Structures are given as C-alpha cells and as structure tokens.
Amino acid sequence: MLRCWLVAFTGAFLFVSPSHAARCGGNFNSFIQSFSQEAAAAGISQNVISSALGGVQQDGGVLAFDRRQRYTFNKTFEQYVATRVGPGRINGGRAMLQRHAALLSRIEQQYGVPRQILVAIWGLETDFGKGDMGKLPVFRVLATLAHDCRRTELFQGELLAALKIVQRGDLALNDMIGAYAGEIGQTQFLPSSYIKYGVDFDGNGHVDLRHSVADVLASTANLLHTNGFKMGAPYGEGTANFEAMREWNRAVIYRKTIGYFADQLVGR
C-alpha cells in the first residue's frame, strides 16, 4: 500500500536537502551522474553506486502510473473493507497468529504493539508475504521518480536510502525489487522507512524485510511503537493509537480497515 507520499516526507529529507540535490529534469544520464556524486559524498561506496545505478534507465511506465494515481479512496469504508477482508484472509490471518505465536509474543513484549494489528497489516499489504511485493527494479523506479521534478527531493532521498540498504548488506542488489514507488518487502516499506525503522529481529546481522518474517513483523511494530502506539489501548477511529497508525498510512479508511481486520482476527 503506497503510504500517500507519507512516511517518506519526513525520512527522505534526512538524506538529501534541496540545496544539495541533483538537478531534476534534463538529460537523465547527466542527472544520474550528478546524483552519483552526491551519493558518494554521503558515504556510499563507488562499487555500490556503479552496481546499482550503472546503466539504469528511465521507466516511462512508472511515470505514467504515477501521474494516474490520486492517492485517495473513492469507496466507502464498507465497500473497501468488503474487497480486502473476507473469510479466506481472516482464516489465513488466524493461521499466522498460531504459526508465529511465540515470535509475536516476543515482539509484543518488546514493542508494545498487539499481534493482531501486525498480522492485519501483513495480510493487507502482501497476503502474509505470499502475495505481490512488486516486480519492478527499485533503483530504476526511484531514479525515474527522482529525475522527475515534481517530488525530486523526496525521491532522491528514497534513492539514497535504497543505496544504503545495499551498502549495509541488508538486501542483495537482485533482491531490490518492489512496487511503483519503490516500496520493498512483505509490509511494503519505503527505503527511508526501511533505514529508519528496520529491525534485525532474527539476529543474523541484516534487516531483511523480504525474507525474514521476524524482521518484517518486528520492523512494522517498531514503526508503530516509535510513533506512539500503546499496548492495551483502543485503536479505533479517534483514539491515540489510530493517530499513531497515521505514520503507516494517512488514509482514514485504510486505518479503519486495519482495525477491523485486527478485530476479526481475535473474534471481536
């Protein structure tokens, strides 16, 4: 779920400020050369830069998709939730609660986010990691959007964060596959959120939000916890926890759907 240019607005500017951003528009290859210099100045190795951006091409399909998006819901909550939370997904979520009960208990204890909220988000985003995590090369997507002048600082920040993911060894270059705004993994983190909230919960030395269920769920919990989510408090519309979920998604209907799905998982 694209988080409405959302979480990234805060995170991205930690990486690239407008005064130091590469100039958008114009020749794409010249833009990439300029950005590569900025990335090197920010501490990204030449090997990572050349591997990720060498030969990268602009993607007209990404630009066309971006221009079609409105990032608003044109359905009522009842219409939307009926398309997203059916018996099959509820049963699948309950199975995930059982399968990962010990892991979810540890995450609850450390981050104070209830397991049903985490599993609801996981299910809505990628059907518990079994669904579509995106099929587009992240660096091609982000380079295309960064070159476009409408939100260049935002996406230059995301592009630099994506380079940092590779440099840290969290994901290999061939695992940097995502959706139409560069979202990555089983709960669809933008790269800046990956860097800001990602947790190595399985203890293998890497934050792997594509393959590690432990990292995926703990990182999602960390995002919510960091933004004020409190265990044991209600999370319906109008509550502090509902507002804390705004960092996940600004859309009221989507947050209501998370809460509805979570309640269904625990029989409320």
From TrEMBL:
A GO molecular function held by the record: peptidoglycan lytic transglycosylase activity
Classification via Pfam families: SLT_2
This protein's record includes keyword Membrane: no
GO biological-process terms attached to the record: peptidoglycan catabolic process
The protein's enzyme class: lyase
UniProt key word Signal: yes
Name of protein: Membrane-bound lytic murein transglycosylase B
EC number(s) stated in the UniProt entry for this protein: 4.2.2.-
Signal peptide: 1-21
Keywords: Lyase, Signal
Domain Transglycosylase SLT: 28-236
